[in-house]
Write a structure and sequence with these properties.
Order of helices and strands: EEHHEHEHEHEHEEEEHHEHHHEE
Distance between the termini: 18 Å
CATH superfamily of one domain: Thiolase/Chalcone synthase
Largest sheet: 9 strands, mixed
Shape: globular
Number of strands: 13
CATH topology of one domain: Peroxisomal Thiolase, Chain A, domain 1
Oligomer: single chain
Strand order of the largest sheet: 5-4-6-7-1-8-13-12-11
Number of helices: 11
Radius of gyration: 20 Å
């Protein structure tokens, strides 16, 4: 029984901040001299990001902060407890906005018909958690089956979709709601090491919700989940990490990550294609068409997108949906790939029926995730 993505909804916080304003906040927070600020400007110019959204207005300010202490040292720096309290206040609101956007964009499934809820997040946790609050706020049945996928990072949406696919495969009447919500910016760290500066230049807040079932809605494009493939590049284990510190969750994001992905992405794609028993046109004959009609790649950073293009012989036009999301929203961790898929989905027409989408995402491990989807436009 095939599983279909019937609808995708997205939401971002109301504070839309230009990357240049975030740069000024960072320069002040890190107490940078003029030379250090110039180097930071170069990093921000190269990011490919124009705007990011945050539940905090602070990143658009240089004084009168609302969350971080309004003094030169930003002390006392917010504790993990204070950040989790903020997460609890804001993550549910953002999740509900994404769910509403999702449910309103389709007509075949009523809210009370949802049988399973999968909650994905790596930027906060508490119990009873967002999953239970979503059940109560939406008025879902109390016996809806809930699964939480936590602390997996940018590729976690793939795991949410895999779980949904397995559920639908074993229970054809299932209606599964997957919600990915991340508040990356509440974990700002004021260290000046290269990895922290890079992470502070990329991450943002956002939420995405996906409704899946074995049904198809007439008159709109939907996506069939055809296959998944996951692999590890253990040599990158130390280059991308996410751990809980005393003052928030601490991201390690090395500048070597694009190189590790460059080495592994071609082999990952070949293995996915081999698993599907398809002809590997992308690697055997340059005169043949690309392996997929469309590409939805997690924009972990501009350089990551570029190395994938180099290795898979893609153009920036092939990768346009990832660049569009990166420019307008930055890297929101797990919901980001769903923003890319929604942007692509909105461009599809009846002529795209039966075409394929190849999707990738990356995260700690270093984990390489891939997924093949088929477009259904009835």
């Amino acid at each position: 029984m095939p599983s279909y993505i019937n609808a995708i909804g997205t939401a971002v916080p109301r504070h839309k901040i230009e990357q240049s304003s975030i740069l000024n906040f960072m320069a002040k927070a890190h107490r940078m001299n003029s030379e250090e600020k110039q180097r930071l400007k170069a990093l921000y110019r190269a990011s490919g990001i124009k705007y990011r959204h945050s539940v905090l207005p602070d990143f658009g300010l240089t004084q009168d902060f609302r969350f971080f202490p309004d003094n030169e040292d930003m002390e006392p720096f917010p504790s993990i407890g204070q950040r989790m309290e903020l997460y609890r206040d804001e993550a549910l609101k953002l999740s509900l906005q994404a769910v509403d956007d999702c449910l309103q964009s389709q007509k075949i499934i009523q809210t009370e018909e949802i049988t399973h809820l999968i909650m994905v997040s790596c930027t906060g946790m508490y119990a009873p958690g967002i999953d239970i609050e979503i059940v109560n706020q939406l008025g879902l049945r109390s016996n809806v089956q809930r699964t939480c996928i936590n602390f997996m990072g940018c590729y976690a949406a793939f795991n949410g979709l895999k779980v949904a696919d397995h559920i639908i495969s074993s229970f054809s009447q299932a209606k599964v709601l997957v919600v990915c919500t991340e508040l990356c910016t509440i974990h700002f760290q004021k260290k000046k090491d290269e990895d922290t500066l890079l992470a502070n230049a990329l991450f943002a807040d956002g939420s995405a919700a996906v409704l899946l079932s074995s049904q198809l809605e007439k008159g709109k494009a939907q996506l069939a989940l055809e296959q998944f493939y996951c692999d590890l590049a253990p040599e990158g284990k130390e280059d991308m990490a996410w751990q809980i510190g005393d003052f928030g969750f601490e991201m390690k994001l090395s500048a070597y990550v694009p190189e590790i992905i460059r080495k592994g992405i071609k082999e990952l794609t070949e293995r996915l294609v081999s698993q599907l028993s398809l002809e590997n046109t992308a690697f055997e004959d340059e005169e043949k068409d690309k392996i997929a009609d469309y590409f939805a790649i997690h924009p972990g950073g501009k350089r990551i997108l570029q190395v994938i293009e180099e290795r898979l012989d893609l153009s920036s036009e092939d990768n346009r949906y990832a660049y569009r999301v990166l420019q307008e929203f930055g890297n929101m961790s797990s919901p980001t790939i769903l923003f890319v898929l929604k942007t692509l989905l909105n461009d599809l027409t009846a002529s795209d029926h039966d075409k394929q989408i190849l999707s990738f995402a990356f995260g700690p491990g270093l984990t390489l995730e891939s997924m093949l989807l088929r477009i259904h436009s009835l």
